[in-house]
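anyone else get weird line breaks when pasting these?? whatever heres mine. first is seq + tokens for prot A
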Amino acid sequence: MKRLILPISTLLLMTIGCDNPIIDDRVELDNSELQDFSSELSSDLGLSKTSANAVNGILNKHGRGGKHRAPGFLWKVADELADKLSGEEKARLFEKMEEKEIPLFSNSKGKKGKGKKGGKNHKDFNGVVKVLTVDQKVTFKAIIAAYKEKFKAVHEQVKDGTLTKEDAKTELDALREAMNAEVDALLTDDQKAQLEQNKADYEAKRQAYKDSSKAVMTAVLGMTSEQLSEFDTANQEARDAANALFEKAKNGDIDKDTLREGLKAIFVSKNEKMSNIFDNGQLEIIKIHKALEMRMKKHKSGKGKMRGGKKGRGGKKGSKG
């Protein structure tokens, strides 16, 4: 009986081929959000199956079992990708940031300014709804619907030229204050106390998450105490300067264009200061983190709703070269 002998080259290809379909060691992610995130990265960066599998391994290591929601998840991923991705892959990862000229240390909430939509007259109606009774919700919906029509009427007047933007702002501010007063009158003292407690709980939870994320960032970047101090100082100076501008705008001392240009100057200065704090290796991890953060936001569930540092990535510790 004749034996079937395969060429040695064929055997080698089957055994150790780069993306051998026979040896399928793909890492499966246990979360659809992570899977979407991974798929986009693979597509954008043009990763081979082997490289994509390596990325999945990193995502799985730090994100399985819901850990992708934990503080500092993307910092841990960015740290490993700094070593795993090629220079060409990193360049493709940074393309969107560079096209849109996204500052490396920009506020993740964008350029909309301080606070939530609606400014000083805005009330957190989502929080209000949670404490209302069934009957109160009926009244609440009627109040909101009535004021929605009033807001619409003011905007229409601006659109047809019968009302200036300045006068419209005055009218809209007055309407918001009146609406908030009606909603406030709807609440009992106990409900108001519950709202304040809910707000305090939320802020405490938010601050704890922020502190934990910063701790992971500090560890990943290997920040020195000097870097950490300079980082905190630069952030605080920018916040203080921005708050001063917002206060001037609130008091009518400056217009929106002046506010916008002032904020732009503040954050350009902040970015320059921040960039001088870190060495090249640390800046690369920070840039990878920023690029990942931009992509991750698109895959959140409910979508539509340092001088010093680690050795080996930017030269010697503390080197900028």
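and prot B, same format (seq, then tokens)
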Amino acid sequence: MSNTTKIAAAAGLSLILGCGQAKDASRQPDAKNNKPNIPANVEKTPEAPAFDASNITFKGPGLVLQKAFDDWKIASAPRYFGADNLYDLINGGSEIFVAYGFLQIVTTDYKHSAHPSITITAEVYDMNTPLGAFGRISKYLENLASPRDAGKGLSSAMESVGILGDGDLIFWKDKYIVHLMLMDEDPEATPDSIAAFSSKVIPKMGEAIFSNIKENGTIDMVSVFPTGHLVPRTEGYFYDFEAGDVKTKAFTARYKKDDIEWTLFVTAPEKPAAENAALMKAAKGTTDVMDIRQLKEHVFGATFSGDKKPDSNLIKAQLDELQGALSAKNVKDL
């Protein structure tokens, strides 16, 4: 299928890939009728029988799926993968899911009788905790030029938790991450046609799955960050945040004023206070850390990147506000 257009998802963005198999001259489209040239002595391959879903049952993360979403019906048996074999499904990047607490994924396909060339693949990841799901989505958003607009085109309920691409949708709710991907095997499909079709189908299917997830765990730590100069949807949780030469788990938020950017962070409260004190002393001597403080089990501060530092008085005011929010919440294990 040398002319097949496929959609694959990476870091929450759709990538248009051309299938790279060797060409078969006997199967190439005729210039006049744009249909495959099938030799007279070769019979057409009969269509595969309709998939029998009567015996399909869901378990684990599959319980938020359905056998049909309107006329999009399940077309393959659900497959399940755990942390020990996730690499078999995701060739690259599986270790990030595992680092955030991944337990299990279910994946299956959906087909529509009126659109036989199109397949929608659904993946549901059980990340064990809402923090794990939120953190993994943070990694996707970190790579986007405009995270503010990542959920544009989704409902108000999903806009702040979803990333809508030209052929896929990824969102988090409670301990789950859901990824929907559209593939069109029509040789005449284009990126524009795929994006247009996807925009009519994928968000609606996502809404149904979103509604099937009844729990709605939240990340309270996000609310402690000051809102002034905050870049929308940059609040995140990272297992590999770097403060100077020290790598640690931390909640972060990015800020921008004019052309100056900086990050506020709060370390995850999993280390003893003595270790956090050592972290504070180590990071304070590095060039990209403007200020760093400690409040009980938390180390928090400000880092910057680029040639220009943010105003020190502004950073002091923000850290004072952050410290006040931490004290008021008495945040411990979020």
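btw re prot B: Residues 5-212 form one domain. Residues 191-212 form the longest helix (22 residues).
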